[in-house]
Automatic annotation (TrEMBL):
First-listed, main subcellular location of the protein, grouped into a coarse class: periplasm
InterPro entries xrefs: Cyt_c-like_dom, Cyt_c-like_dom_sf, Cytochrome_c4-like, Cytochrome_c_Oxidase_Subunit
Subcellular location field: Periplasm
Domain (Cytochrome c): residue spans on this chain: 13-117, 127-217
Record-given protein name: Putative cytochrome c4
GO MF annotation: an example: heme binding
Annotated source species: mine drainage metagenome
PROSITE patterns cross-referenced by the UniProt entry: CYTC, PROKAR_LIPOPROTEIN
Amino acid sequence: MNKAILSVVLGAALLATGCSDFKSDTESTRNLNDPSVSGRTLAEQVCAICHGVDGNSKNPVFPRLAGQQPAYLTEQLKAFRSHDRSDVLGYKYMWGIARNLTNKQIDELAQYYKGQTAIPGQVKETALVAQGDAIFHHGVEATSVPACASCHGPQGHGHDGFPRLASQHEDYILKQLSVFKHTNDRYAGMGAMMSPVAYNLSGNQARAVAAYLSVQR
């Protein structure tokens, strides 16, 4: 998709979703090719189409970014820009968006989302959440799955390059675990660490962990 078409599509989408009402303290623009546009404005007027203005997306196809670790989000945006992250959803939605982002804009986007408050989902299956709690904090000894908390923190808030998982969409977590398990599309950087972990999780165990994390604050 060339730049002109991309701008038209984004503009139409913004109007269709009511994003034209979003206001910024600074500039007002939807031009992805202007390096002077702040990350905050991009977040409010472009990224909000899919991720929500506060980073709490409604559609589980798109991850919740509210409260995300800046180092992780910076790494992922740069991976989309360089095409090092090539999972299907990333390729479909993020390559075109990220390709003209400057390092400054990426840093500002990461800080913007870090400052937003994550909103957890609601418990649907208590037993499944309890199973996920046990796996997250203690791992699965029988299949050498380490405790998720050892990297992502005891509350799932992440740190440095390890992402925040608390409050993330259950379906999105499941999709990413499947990507790690069955493809090399996210093998770059720290993604390589997740492949053996995801491979040794059963489908039900993955669902339990995802259900648990989705309802954590």
